[in-house]
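ok trying this again, last paste got cut off
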Amino acid sequence: MNIYEKCPVLENENYIIRLFENEDCDDLLKVYSEKNALPFFNSDNCDGDNFYYATKERMFEAMSFWTMAYQNGWFARLSIVDKALSAVIGTVELCIRSSEDDFNNMGILRVDVRSDYETENKLYALFSLITPKVEKMLGCKGVITKTPIYAVERIKAIQKAGFTKSKHLLIGKTGYAYDGYWTY
């Protein structure tokens, strides 16, 4: 399965994870304009983008970039739909890392959700749905995700989903070393 040829749709009792659509813009604006959610987003190695989009125009610009990135095989951005609400409550970003550090050929999993979804049970339902499928979707040798030390609910969720704290640093394209990575 190649995520860039045909993006799979993942589903459990609570969520559907699918390739984002332009119609998701209003719901995604609620995620990416929320300052309480911002500290949980991983913007390592993203050329200074912190993923704070305060206007619909800025959100749509980001989505246009996501479309181009997907078409070029750089990364895939998927929307997370809460089935009970029929609303998009966040995104998953997936890409494969090519590097000279300990995370070479690992899949990077970023999960950005509204702050009311930053709870152990909700995050576990998301990470347990997507993580086991990342290696097959990307053709990688494992999965990494960043979780800062203050994200206590997220840490509990990813540990429950099978991640362990890495002692290694992720070396960015400018040579900057990022910490806080967990491996699966």
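PB: full thing came through this time. Residues 25 and 60 are 7 Å apart (CA to CA).
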